[in-house]
# Entry
Amino acid sequence: PGWLGAGAAARSSALSAIAGAVEAATAELAALAVREVGKPLAEARAEVARTVAIWRYYAQAPYEPTGALHETAGGPGLLLTRRRPHGVAGLITPWNFPFAIPSWKAAPALAAGNTVVLKPAPEATACAQRLAAVIQQALPDGVFTVVAGGAVEGNAVLSTADAVSFTGSTAVGDAVVRAATARGVPVQAEMGGLNAAIVLPDADIARAAAHIASAIAGYAGQKCTATSRVIAVGAALDPLREALAEALRALPVGDPADPATVCGPLISGLARNRFDQARGELSVLAAGAAPDGPGWYAAPTLVEKVPPGHRLLREEVFAPLAVLLPADDLAHAVRITNGVPYGLVTSVHTAGLDAVLHGLDRLDTGMVRVNAPSTGVDFHLPFGGAKASGHGPREQGRAALEFYTASRTYTLTPADAM
# Structure
């Protein structure tokens, strides 16, 4: 209660101080992400910069209106609505964005007056502990806590938090939703995607290929917004096949500490095995050059002629691997896009807006990006997907402030009212 009672100015000042402290530690944090989770240095620096921007954005949130004033139905008095924090926000986060994801959950929760308990993925424990040390310098004791560990610690957070926000796999996310729902606490879960890039014949093929290649292979495809299906409409198929194969082969694969690297190693040997099994004996259109020597590297790969029902057409692999699929027209491309259990983000590449205005509202995805990669969604807009990609309210932007608060209705009537 003391954190909420400190007032808007104190909370805003603290979040601003966190932004400054994260910015001052940019070099150290980026290097730690390279070492612990294999994030390419350029992406690690960009993630830290995004983290700074997130804290600065939410530093203004404590001053936002928290409710509204309404007229009574009849007679004197006031009717008020007011949003109040839930209490303790329990955050369960993945390893692939070890600074940005905890921040875009924690910053709005703290801005609204909640305290936070963060349970990071075991693979990103050092990043979480270092971020916590930076954050805790600006906060009273006990307002932000890290609980490192695995399933036992995650279940402890689930059993005690007043609101739960999760990002991770579908299987774990489903269990988190069930556990939080059984307790009757608010829960949101972001659980990945099987994202498509639709390329129409009028698109700038070279530009589209560059965008899609980066979304397939950036950070070795270890993003929930990575592109894993490329749908070429009509006459776009042949030129896109050639351009995308060339773009993938040209992407630098190697040591994540090298500033030029785009595709670094996978997170583990198990992840590398999943990549090898998914690629299997499929027809490979293009494959980059993975370095020889130690490291769980996987060459960025594009395959085609994938048989119906193959796992690449129904499961998220989380690796630099994508399928090229033909479509007769936009309507056919939309059916292909929607024909999977997930619905996080779709990118569409076209020179005109007719297709966007007439066809894309039929997409079962939470986000649509036109002439842009499927990755790189703006942090001040709502983030989330449909179907198996997400459960509950959206993250980020003003939507996050609503999730971390509950609306209360107040009726104020004069003591002498009849």
The two ends are 36 Å apart (CA to CA).
